[in-house]
């Protein structure tokens, strides 16, 4: 039974509505307790977000002691998913940091974030800080009180560092790395058995003569005896003798004992915070993946190892939200009897969670038995990896998972496991594993490959360089489809060899092939999607800072055959960066982040997928319109007998074999010399005889347009300048020469026209229109680096030369370019430039909004821009412009009859409110759109209740996650969205207006 005061608090903060949970994410009483796997802490309620982020609520009639709170917090901290613990008593509510590391001293105050003493008076403040909407929209992380809640102090981050330090110390003490890892694994497993109560103090004493593991490890004979008994009791691959390549000596064992006692180098003992019976097994598995990284680093230093050896063997730590995302889709609606394969299983994080889910599905409402768990483990879970360390960790993780699922793991002598390595966990190269003795389990009795129902994993994203291109060329004649350099798609094609027509796939891949401008790369990606249709692609590029920080490419999740779709289409999901995700290492997917893309359109235009991911409907319409009206820059340049060219590459001394003598005496423009429209008057002089790639002399003939390869945050657009004299530019730039000589080959009437052409191209490529276009179509900018390629620039739509020089807008551009070349450019100059370009392209007001908002979205590629995108929207800067744009768009539709008008009410909510509300009223009288500010008399909960009563909608239940709502009444539309600015941009107002108009034709009353 949930106490009345707790229900009051949960109701006021949006977790309950009319006494009931607003969604399945909120659990009360027994349901909340059952959701926790283990531990002494017993919650009275809980909320869990889509990415497992959890808030726990605990009721007490009297304030609990500091010791009790710290004990609860230690349980929660070890679970790793809960940033907050609410302690609710009749007189107060205390919020505690769940990510704060437990310390030896009892210090609950150190982790207390905020206290609300007068519950009735301050519930609205509590709601604004950490209510359900604040958590689901990420607004909580904007609050100053949330700064103490840091993912860097969470259990996985700290255990990772501690294990890394422990392994490094053992190797530094001359212990073989494989032996060090085996010792650490055995110690963690043993501590798990002790924490879980499977091995009690009596058994420890019986087999070792000591009563704690740290005491045992300080006695080599006792440690050997205990490990021998555990090896006999559990068998399997948990304690393989082959892992011990060197004897365990007293100093090595003592170092592990220090770890378990939390003893530092100075002999000081602090609290050992880890409870291995609470830490999720899949978390241990993913953390343990660092062992594979350390093995790769060690191989890279061995004699004969190539410079890319570490990369070629490296893996990327697969975060649990990605595992959940994939398995939620791949395992939705399955029977539980399916077989699972991970061809690059690493430490087994996918396999561990798949085992847990299969057991749960098979058991249904019945009991979970040891026989059920073991049969699932031995017959349905398969993994392959090239790393011996990874396979050992995968076995370790799966055994732990089986023990965790076991309802009564007693006595330990009856928990003996079968061996997994060599049976279902196979050591070898996935490219040919079934053709080796180690992979015999993947071949059926009739000689055919074993086929699997579910294939998951995170295969290598390695960049294979020129060798990859050579390999592709050799196989092209045979009709084999391979990605030209990156090998992740090759693994995806390889996975299909073990599938059947109904096999479901969930793979983490590099995003680059799907957005590539490489003809062969994009063909390989398109062939893969066609072969596995129906497919959903989830673009995780925006999360690259924390999701796969060691990766050299952004991530894409491919989900195949998981849910039905329209024939000939794929689903594209673009996951946005959020402060909540950065702080908590989770992510949310909103319905508005999901679009459908025609495979045919993607195959016709390779950048269509990028446009779908980074744009909206209005972006696509404008892009198609511009392409239908204007030829691309490459064609435009070809028509005037010139082209985009790469710059000069000097190279290392031994590489300077190209003859550069004809370039001597020219000034040379280096990487940092340029600013928008301006090239320094004085540059260095080139005096060398040779260079790696000097390029032909005509590359550097003036007039020249020079484009910087790297975009600058200050500009958020290409950095371009025109010069009237010859100079060399390095390969940090691209250039276009409009030569004055050789009039017979020049299509311009005179030299001034050549300079006019150069100046006009410089202004267009410097505009917001170019930045918007590059964001929507380029192969790299927006995904990974703030870098351009020639092909990105070459596809830019350009008006004809005659239109440029014979229109007022074109003449204005030439005037501005000349001015900016002399004086530089400021904010006012950028506005004049953009408006002149818009005039040249004849963009209407709505299209100008689309482009200018595209310039702002381009700024999200830098930290400041990202943070600005999630800052709380303000009435003056965001909501009123949004309302005006929406109302103007709807007014254009209402003007068809001339009898109605629209009025907008912008709710002036506190800056700390997690959502924003704008109401539009359709009035039965003609007139222009009107915008009014409305100051509510009640708090946010009261506002939502009043709107919900009037429109007969349970808004609390409807506002789940970061969902955006359009609620219709008689002659009114209420739009409710998260407070983040990115939801309230003017382009979103256009999109929302388009949706309202479309919905009105389907029966919505407006």
Structure description:
With 1006 residues, the chain is α+β, with helices and mostly antiparallel strands. Among the domains are: 4-153, tt1808, chain A; 156-279; 633-863, Adenine-n6-DNA-methyltransferase TaqI, Chain A, domain 2; 871-1001, no CATH class. Helix content is 42%, strand content 14%. The strands form 8 sheets. The protein has a 9-stranded mixed beta sheet with strand order 11-10-9-12-13-15-14-16-17, with helices on both faces. Strands 3-4-5-6-7-8 form a 6-stranded mixed beta sheet, sandwiched between helices.
- How helical, in percent, are the residues? 40-55%
How would you sum up the global shape? globular
Count of helical segments? Answer: 39
End-to-end distance, in Å? 45 Å
- Fraction in beta strands: 5-15%
For the largest beta sheet, what order do the strands appear in spatially?
A: 11-10-9-12-13-15-14-16-17
Task: Outline the secondary-structure elements.
Blueprint: H1 4-12, E1 16-17, E2 20-21, E3 26-28, H2 29-35, E4 45-48, E5 54-59, H3 66-79, E6 84-89, E7 92-97, E8 112-116, H4 119-130, H5 132-137, H6 155-172, H7 177-196, H8 201-208, H9 213-217, H10 220-234, H11 250-261, H12 281-288, H13 290-300, H14 309-313, H15 320-330, E9 340-342, H16 349-363, H17 370-380, E10 381-385, H18 388-405, E11 425-427, E12 454-457, H19 465-476, H20 488-496, E13 504-510, H21 512-515, H22 519-532, E14 535-539, E15 555-560, E16 569-574, H23 579-584, E17 594-598, H24 599-604, H25 608-614, H26 617-629, E18 631-632, H27 633-639, E19 644-646, E20 658-659, E21 667-669, E22 684-685, E23 690-691, E24 704-708, E25 720-723, E26 728-729, E27 733-737, H28 751-765, H29 768-777, H30 790-794, E28 797-798, H31 801-805, H32 808-823, H33 827-840, H34 845-858, H35 863-870, H36 875-894, E29 901-907, E30 915-923, E31 930-934, H37 940-951, H38 955-958, E32 965-969, E33 972-978, H39 986-1001
Parallel strand pairs: 5-6, 9-10, 9-12, 10-11, 12-13, 14-16, 21-26, 29-31
Antiparallel strand pairs: 1-2, 3-4, 4-5, 6-7, 7-8, 13-15, 14-15, 16-17, 18-28, 19-27, 20-23, 21-22, 24-25, 24-27, 29-30, 30-33, 32-33
Helix pairs in contact: 6-7, 6-11, 6-12, 7-18, 12-16, 12-18, 15-16, 16-17, 16-18, 28-32, 29-34, 32-33, 36-39
